[in-house]
Design brief:
single chain; alpha/beta; Purple Acid Phosphatase, chain A, domain 2; six-stranded mixed sheet; 6 helices; about 25% helix; about 25% strand; GpdQ_beta-strand; Metallo-depent_PP-like; Phosphodiesterase
Length: about 280
């Protein structure tokens, strides 16, 4: 039996701006994403898909999505399926205008009120993408309609191991400012949703610009670092929000014959093996 694992790469919080602009005058998010894309294309075995879990751009401007599409072109040229989710810095309409309908891109349909969908991966594993964006607000949330749609998506394949993706983490992290901007509205409904669907093995998120491990119902909940800038690890209750120059990174979720779903941290940069 072929024991080669299947890989899903999770990039997050790419925060792409219009060309030539920098975050806080010093963080080149475009250069960081170019490097991440280059590294993804080098991964062996070849990933079955790439998920970007929100805050794709920094202000939701159409020019930012045009820039993002240019930066992601090497993945599209390589015919790697791409699954996109909105975060609180995103805007659904310009996101869909630039990406909906492209071959191998999953992001919902133009005119939809929420970007929610399911993607069947080999192995098998099912990716269910949920939209936690609350327009105009930094915190995330689900209304009754979105929770009902999520329940319907999860009910379609109850026998298939499933990974649920959303931008806002559904658990506290100890990062005081970010915890006020986590999944707030509909949190109890989301927890009940996961509890009802035992096939959900992992909940994966972005937003925190750090790797964290929590839990929602029976499932482990993991947040991915940013491909560009991280947030300082300061667990004081009065800690301000601060950017740190810690290494960027992304997650690689692996599964397959004899391998339960496991999540790995990959860091930016080139790190040769020592033999």
């Amino acid at each position: 039996m072929d024991a080669t694992p299947y890989l899903l790469v999770q990039l997050s919080d790419t925060h792409i701006l219009r060309p030539g602009r920098l975050i806080s005058g010093c963080v080149d998010t475009a250069a960081a994403l170019r490097h991440a894309v280059e590294r993804v294309l080098q991964i062996q075995p070849r990933p079955v898909a790439v998920l970007i879990s929100g805050d794709l751009v920094d202000s939701g401007h159409p020019e930012e999505y045009a820039h993002l599409r240019e930066l992601l072109a090497p993945l599209l040229d390589a015919k790697l399926p791409l699954a996109l989710l909105p975060g609180n810095h995103d805007a659904r309409e310009p996101l869909l205008a630039k990406f909906a309908g492209l071959p191998d891109v999953h992001c919902g349909e133009p005119g939809t009120e929420a970007i929610q969908y399911a993607l069947d991966l080999p192995g098998p594993l099912r990716l269910v993408a949920l939209d936690s964006l609350v327009t105009g607000r930094p915190e995330g949330g689900f209304d009754d309609d979105r929770l009902a749609q999520a329940d319907a998506l999860l009910s379609e394949r109850p026998d298939v191991p499933t990974l649920v993706a959303l931008h806002h983490p559904p658990h506290a992290s100890g990062l005081a400012v970010m915890d006020t901007m986590s999944l707030q509205r509909g949190l109890a409904g989301f927890e009940a949703l996961i509890a009802r669907h035992s096939q959900v093995q992992r909940v994966v998120c972005g937003h925190l610009h750090r790797l964290t491990l929590g839990q929602v119902a029976h499932a482990a909940a993991v947040t991915a670092p940013s491909t560009a800038h991280q947030l300082a690890l300061d667990l004081r209750t009065d800690a301000p929000l601060a950017i740190t120059q810690e290494p960027a990174g992304w997650l690689i979720h692996a599964w397959g014959p004899g391998l339960p779903l496991v999540s790995h941290l990959a860091q930016a940069g080139h790190h040769p093996s020592l033999r």
